Amino acid sequence: MRRIKYFMLTCVTVGCMALTGGCQGARGEGVAKEKSEESVITEASRDEKGIGKEEIVIVDQLGKEIVLDGVPERVATTIMPFPYIYYAVVGNSDHLIACNPSSLLAYEDSALKYMYPELAHANTEFVDTSFVVNIEELLKLEPEVVFQWNYMEEEIAKMEAAGIKVVALQYGTLEDLETWIRIIGKMFDKEKRAEELIAYFHDSVGEVTEKIDTLSLEDYKNILIMSDNLKVNGSGFYEYYVGKSGAVNPAQDLSGEALNVNMEQIYQWNPDIIYIGNFTSMQPSDIVGNKLEGQDWSVLDAVAKGQVYKIPIGGYRWDPPGVETPLMVKWLAKIQHPQLFEDLDMRKEVSDFYKEVYGFELTEAMLDEILNDTQDF
C-alpha cells in the first residue's frame, strides 16, 4: 500500500481518489458503493440486492450515447482483453455471460483463472475470433449490453438492428485504456474504483520513468517486438511501454502491427533484445536454437547474448495495453537496464500488484507461471 499512500499525498490534482484500501477493497459483496459526483446512480435507487435501477448513460468511443435501465446483469463482449479489465474494475461477477473464444484460450494460460473462476462458464458460441457475431446465438443469451470494436461497423449495425445495445470501444493507446476503465466504472457503479486504478497505473509507471529520465537516448536499448515469425510491430503499437522502459523500436519507421519483414531487414536492425509476443506459439528457443527453416538468427547481437524473451501472461497477455501494463514496463526496464533496476524484484512487484489491484495473493507456483516461461533455452 506504500505507493497508494504516496499517491494520496502527492497527486491531489487527480482529486477525490481515496486510495487507502481502495485497490484491495473493491472485491466481494461487502464493497463500499462510494461514487463520484458524476455518478447517475444514487443510493436511493438501489434494491435489496444493491443493483442500481435508474438510467445509466454511457458515451462510447464512437461518440454514441447508450442508455441502460440500470447496472446490467447480462453483459457480452467480443473484445479479447476485455474480461480481465472488467475484472480489475468490477471483481468477481456472474454478469459477464459471454466473451470471445480467444479470451478463454488466454484465460486458461493466465492467472485470471485463479481469481475469476466464474468466467470459465462464459458462452463463446455467439462470436468467432474475427469478432463476427452470430445474431441468433447472441439473442439466445438475452444480453442487456454488448461490447464490440468501434471499427466493426457492420457488426454493430447488425446487433443494433436486432434491438441489442452496443458499446463501441477503440484499441491502441493509454487514453483508450483509461476510457475503457471509466466506461466500465460508470456502467457498474464503480467510478471511484476506476479512478483509483488509473491513478495507481500512473503512479506505478512513474517509479520507472523517474529512473529512465536519468538516461540519455544513447543508453536506450534497440529492441524488436515480434508478433510472429518474420512479423514485427511498427509505430502506433506499444510505443507507450517501449519509451517508458528506456528503449527504441528500430521498426518505428514502419506503421502498423504484424508487418512482414525479411531476415536482411532484421540483420540491418540488429536488435540488442528481441521480444516475442504472446499471440504466437513461437518461442525464444526457436530463434536462439536456429529452429526456423531457412533463417539464420545466430549472427544477431540479441541471440549471441541470449537476450530473447517471451512476453508474459498475467491476468491477460501483457502485449496489448491493459491494467497490467505497469508490470510490463517494469519487466522491460529490468531486462533492458539491469544495473539501473538492480533493486527491482519482479516477483515482489507482481505479487504486490496483485494484492493491491486485484485483492488476490499469488502463490509461488502462480508467480512461476507468470515469470518463469519468458526464456525456454
Automatic annotation (TrEMBL):
Alphabetical list of PROSITE patterns matching this protein: FE_B12_PBP (PS50983), PROKAR_LIPOPROTEIN (PS51257)
UniProt xrefs under InterPro entries: ABC_Transporter_SBP (IPR050902), ABC_transptr_periplasmic_BD (IPR002491)
Pfam family, one: Peripla_BP_2
Superkingdom to which the source organism belongs: Bacteria
Occurrences of domain Fe/B12 periplasmic-binding (ranges): 74-340
One Gene Ontology term from the biological process aspect of the record: cellular response to iron ion
PANTHER family, per the entry: MOLYBDATE-BINDING PROTEIN MOLA, VITAMIN B12-BINDING PROTEIN
Sequence similarity: Belongs to the bacterial solute-binding protein 8 family.
Name listed for the protein in its UniProt record: ABC transporter substrate-binding protein
Taxonomic placement: Bacteria, Bacillati, Bacillota, Clostridia, Eubacteriales
